[in-house]
Every structure is written in structure tokens, then in C-alpha cells.
Amino acid sequence: MSRDSAATETGGPDERDSLMRVLGGRASAVDASVPPVAFGAVWAFSDGSIAAAGIAAVGVGAVIGAWRLTRGARPLAVLLSLLAVTVGALIALRTGQAADFYLIRLVSNAASGLAWMTSIAVRWPLLGLVVGTVLGQRTTWRRDPELLRAYSRASWVWVGQYLTRLVVFVPLWAANAVFALSAAQVVLTWPLVALCVATSWWVLRRTLPADHPGIRHVRESG
């Protein structure tokens, strides 16, 4: 089997779309970017009122949450998104620093990056868990050394995503650059996730040997 034919079986648009939905689709991007934009905009046009900006962000988050519920989103996911916005607003109010609204996002990205790195180190790469769930394989892919290696390498792309956000966000947060943080949140949400999905898929396909039957087929060792 040629590498091209193996790559074709390795993943088509349906699997990439499924991966995009699970790891952060358009709905998640709206949750992550619109409330921070609302916070930054209201803060800028209200002479730096953290209270007004926080109310705006929470209000926008609640509207988005209600809209997502009508479209069949999981209530827990909606609640967690709204909770993150609310906690961010409360932190900013408590500290008196508007940039601290984004502090919870810094922490979540650091924690996510650490979780992905740990999963690779213990040979349970999160990308494999996600794709295995999408394909209905559960954890049988771990019995295939080639799939395990491919998922591990591709998972590093996701580590890079979180590190990229931290490299951008941390200096802006330290400089109290509220509006710049809002803009960065937009750029580093949906566009970055889309790039990450495409790149990790490419790494996955390139890592598998040419004679491998593809991610839908587990080839056990021995």
C-alpha cells in the first residue's frame, strides 16, 4: 500500500470535523472569544469600569449559553463556560486589575498544556483518547505501537497550541493590556484550533508507516 493510499484511509474530512467538534469547534470558540471581547470593549468605552465590563461579559456569556442550549449543547459544558466568565469577572473586581479577568484563561491554558504533556509521558496521549472515542475504539488503539507513537507525536502539536497562547497572553497580562488581550483571545481561539487540528492530523498521517491500514484499523503487535 502506498503512503498516499494509507494517508487517505488515515483520516478524511468526517474524522477531521469530528475532531474539531470534540477539541474545540466553532461553538466553543464563540464561548471563549465573545465574552472577553465584550469585557474589553465595555472596559475601554466606560472609562475603565471593571464592574460594567464584568456585567457585560457575564450577560453576553449567559445569552450565548442560552442559545447553545437551544441547539442541543450539553448543559454542563454551557455551565462551565459561563462559570469561567463569572469567575474571571469576580477576580478582576477583587484585585482591581482589569487584566485579571483573563487570569483564569492563563491558568487553564497552562493546566491544559501540562495535562497533554503528562498524557504523552505516561503513554496515554490525549489525542488518541479523543480520536479513539470519535471512532468508537475506546482504548484499543494502545495495543498498536505504531498508532500509539503517531498519537504521541501529534499530541505535541496541541501542547504547542497552549504554549503559544501563554507566550502571547502572559506578557499582555503583565502589561495590563486589556484590549490587546481581547484581540489575542479572538485570534488564538478558532484560527489557532483550526490550524492545530490540520497540523496534528498531518503529523499523525506522516508518522504512520505506509503499510499501516489507518486509524480506523488497530494493528496489534505480536
UniProtKB/TrEMBL annotation:
Listed transmembrane segments:
50-69, 76-93, 113-135, 156-174, 180-204
Q: Which InterPro entries match?
A: UCP010219
Instruction: Tell me yes or no: is Lipid biosynthesis among this UniProt entry's keywords.
Output: no
Question: Is Transmembrane there in the keyword field?
Answer: yes
Q: Which Pfam families match?
A: DUF3159
Q: Which UniProt keywords apply?
A: Membrane, Transmembrane, Transmembrane helix
Annotated protein name in UniProt:
DUF3159 domain-containing protein
Q: To which species is this protein native?
A: Actinopolyspora mortivallis
